[in-house]
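Colleagues,

For the teaching module next term, I've prepared a clean inverse folding example: a structure given as tokens, and then the sequence designed for it. I'd like students to try predicting residues themselves before seeing the answer, so please don't circulate the second half yet.
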């Protein structure tokens, strides 16, 4: 009898990685669109110096820094998955096996390394 981890890896790790990449691209795109509207709204509200100073204090809070780390993850996933899709459109990795490998190695693997490299400086300011 095979164990649960092997079955889960086989099911979600390889066969459905294209659908997982599709969902990740759509969800991160919607999250970035929501962030864009929130960002423009916040910038518009900060015309007065007093409100601007108050906003800067909020931006230094630990909760906001965790939000920045989340935003970093969303941007990295969306960007690297977009690079993977562009490479596929150009004819690199057209077969299913290469697409899966590009998803796991490029999008998830490189994305995790870049995320850790970017999150450490952000979180270092929280835990000073």
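(Answer key — instructors only)
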């Amino acid at each position: 009898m095979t164990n649960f981890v092997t079955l889960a890896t086989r099911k979600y790790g390889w066969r459905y990685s294209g659908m997982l990449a599709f969902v990740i691209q759509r969800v991160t795109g919607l999250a970035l669109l929501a962030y864009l509207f929130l960002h423009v709204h916040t910038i518009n509200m900060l015309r007065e110096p007093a409100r601007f100073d108050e906003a800067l204090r909020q931006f230094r809070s630990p909760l906001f820094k965790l939000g920045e780390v989340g935003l970093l993850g969303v941007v990295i996933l969306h960007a690297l998955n977009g690079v993977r899709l562009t490479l596929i459109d150009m004819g690199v990795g057209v077969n299913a096996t290469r697409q899966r490998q590009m998803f796991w190695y490029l999008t998830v693997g490189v994305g995790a390394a870049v995320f850790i490299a970017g999150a450490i400086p952000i979180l270092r300011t929280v835990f000073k």
